[in-house]
From TrEMBL:
Its EC number is 6.1.1.20. It holds the Pfam family tRNA-synt_2d. The keyword Kinase does not apply. InterPro entries: aa-tRNA-synth_II, aa-tRNA-synth_II/BPL/LPL, Phe-tRNA-synth_IIc_mito, Phenylalanyl-tRNA_Synthase. This is phenylalanine--tRNA ligase. It comes from Aromia moschata. Residues 69-300 form the Aminoacyl-transfer RNA synthetases class-II family profile domain. One of its GO terms (cellular component) is mitochondrion. It comes from the Eukaryota. One of its GO terms (biological process) is phenylalanyl-tRNA aminoacylation. SUPFAM superfamilies: Class II aaRS and biotin synthetases (SSF55681).
């Protein structure tokens, strides 16, 4: 909010300008973010106030409410997805740097160049090529390229939101990715496939599925995804929690859904999820799997 300056104060400032030897320091052409220096440019809009929040990691502080929620979510995934020996298959990544490249935050997720989420009014840009991550999904491709198939990404994210009861410029997210081969989707039924034979197109297709995926595979992945998240909602909010699924659009999943829960006589959006766009996997070097992904605002 801009401060209003009265005419009297303006006159006083100019009439006494020669009485002080203090001069205005030129604005720095560089900005330091987490011990790394970046050159400023016409896209730089991150403020000192926002930078001051970096590194606080409230979600890792013992007994902090965010830490308690984080641990309950992690425990749920650990217990729900185990290997033959009973060990958790999901890895947890919660110390990823919030300073990411535009390629990480947008390009790797197939977000169009003219998408409104890229605008300076929505994001905190360090400069034209880097920004403070707007979602934990920004780390998705790098972890898949590292060979991971089941993982959680937890951390603080930054968006230029108007402050209200469910929005603040700094908040926290839990993202999850699960990739599965044909054998894992169909339990080794060799007659079924996750990819349409003879169809190598990677277009979005209809709401129901992408053109490259078989309907059988999509429906099984959808069932596992929704069953997992409905179970997580009950785990966090109680067995009697009401929930519903709403069809939606995300650039990086197709089909896509939002999970809403009924809270204080209203439906509250809890998370977004969907079947991952296959080009994202292809670009990460993965051609034998399909996946589902979710993003949950843990401040809700």
């Amino acid at each position: 909010m801009h401060k209003r300056i009265t005419l009297k104060l303006i006159r006083g400032h100019f009439s006494n300008r020669n009485l002080s030897s203090t001069s205005v320091q030129p604005e720095s052409k560089e900005i330091s973010v987490l011990n790394r220096t970046y050159a400023k440019d016409d896209f730089t809009n991150v403020t000192d106030k926002i930078v001051s929040h970096l590194g606080k990691s409230l979600y890792l502080q013992p007994y902090h409410p965010l830490n308690l929620v984080r641990q309950r979510i992690v425990n749920f995934f650990y217990k729900t997805f185990v290997n033959r020996r009973g060990n958790p298959v999901f890895s947890v990544h919660e110390n990823l740097s919030p300073a990411v490249s535009v390629e990480q935050n947008f390009d790797s997720l197939l977000i169009p160049e003219d998408h409104p989420s890229r605008s300076k009014s929505d994001c905190y840009y360090i400069n034209r090529s880097h920004l403070l991550r707007a979602h934990m999904t920004a780390h998705q491709s790098e972890l898949m390229q590292a060979g991971l198939n089941n993982f959680l990404m937890i951390g603080d994210v930054y968006r230029r939101d108007e402050i209200d009861r469910t929005h603040y410029p700094v908040f926290h997210q839990v993202d999850a990715v699960r990739l599965k081969t044909k054998e894992q989707v169909f339990l080794k039924d060799e007659a079924l496939h996750i990819f349409e034979e003879g169809n190598n197109t990677l277009s979005i297709g209809e709401q129901e599925k992408q053109t490259c995926h078989t309907l059988e595979a999509v429906k099984l992945m959808e069932f596992e995804l929704k069953d997992t998240l409905a179970g997580l909602a009950r785990h966090l909010f109680g067995e009697d929690i009401k929930h519903r699924w709403v069809d939606t659009y995300f650039p990086f999943t197709q089909p896509s859904w939002e999970l809403e829960v009924y809270y204080e006589d209203d439906w509250l959006e809890l998370l977004g999820c969907g079947i991952m766009r296959q080009p994202i996997l292809i670009n990460a070097g993965i051609d034998d799997r399909m996946g589902w992904a979710l993003g949950w605002d843990s401040n809700v």
